[in-house]
Amino acid sequence: MIEMYIWSAVVVLNKVIFYVGFACIAGYTFLGFISNQVNIDKRLEVEQIDFYWVKVSIPIAMTANIFWFFANVGAMAGGGIQDALNPELIDIMWDSTLGDVAYIRFIGLILAILVVVFSNKLKTKAFNCYLLRLTLFSSLLILAYTYTLTGHASELGTLEKALLIFHVLVMAWWFGSLLPLKQACHVMRGDKLYLLMINFGKQAITAVSLLLVAGLWLAVQLVGSVDALLSSSYGWTLLFKLFLVICILGVAANHKLKLVPQLNSIDGRKALSKSISIEIKIAFSILTVTAILTSVVGP
After folding, report:
1. Helices 97-122 and 2-38 sit at what angle, rounded to 10 degrees?
2. Comparing C-alpha atoms, which of 256, 263, 258 is closest to residue 189?
3. What is the C-alpha to C-alpha distance for residues 23 and 112, in angstroms, rounded to an integer?
4. Alpha-carbon distance 235 to 225, whole Å?
5. For a designed S-S bond to 75, which of 7, 54, 59, 225 qualifies (C-beta 3.0 to 4.6 A apart)?
6. Angstrom distance (rounded) from CA 288 to CA 294
7. What pLDDT band is residue 143 in, cutting at 50, 70 and 90?
8. Could you tell me if 143 and 25 are in contact, meaning their C-beta atoms sit under 8 angstroms apart?
9. In the chain, what's the furthest Cα-to-Cα distance?
10. What mean pLDDT is predicted for residues 247-261?
């Protein structure tokens, strides 16, 4: 029994690490689209943002994906590390849906790594930039698709699976954009930073509204009824996640209505940067609760 709790904790931990890596890829992908709309000259100011966290997060996410697979093997066996490394058990798990998920995520992460490795060599031409973004977006779609393969999500209909993919992509875009936006508060000129935040806010209003609609619809499909929502561990965990989402929406609304208009001053920049840090912490909490929902508790 103790081993099962340990393996469950390892599964959740590595799933959270993968979620963070996935979000980093999404933020790195979509920041370029926003910067083009802002019309930053040659994107020099956006390039001042240090994307080291992307280069680090993708290999870490790949490592977490491997550990996640072997942790599931150990959880299935209910034993120690030796059972998790048992060749026969590994073959059984590899032939299951979890093996498919691990393999498909490996492919998606490899695509992202190739973009990071070759970005400096290829981004000098416009066509190559679009090719890099297309490859990154393909990586995101592949990674988001894996969310529909396991658990109760695999039993959803085609429409619900499409909504889940959209829900995951918007979540990753939103959370993955927070760190580069925080860095932008320190490296971009005031007028460019203001335009960047305004464009991000406009996109966020539409995307997050659709995110909430898709999330609520999926919750209804998974839980089934209000009674199940209030009488199950899954329902209470889902309600706690909803509370965190409301908190992060409140922080985002404060950015748009109060802090972004004050970006002309140094104090305004510091206040926005500090508030984004709070948003990052809430986002990480949401990812953690999501990992628990999809690993430890079920509808």
Report:
1. 30
2. 263
3. 12
4. 10
5. 7
6. 10
7. very high
8. yes
9. 63
10. 85
Here the tokens at position 171 are: 């979540």
- ∠ CA 219-223-228, nearest 5°, is 135
- In the predicted model, is pLDDT for residue 31 greater than 80? no
Q: Which of 196, 221, 211 is nearest to 246 (CA)?
A: 211
Average pLDDT in the 63-90 region?
Answer: 89
CA pair distance 113, 136, nearest whole angstrom: 9
Secondary structure in 3-state letters for 127-182: HHHHHHHHHHHHHHHHHHHHHHCCHHHHHCCHHHHHHHHHHHHHHHHHHHHHHHHH
Residue 43 binned pLDDT confidence (cut-offs 50, 70, 90):
very low
Backbone angles phi, psi at 120, to 5 degrees: -65, -30
Q: Which residue, 86, 122, 139, 98, is CA-closest to 14?
A: 98
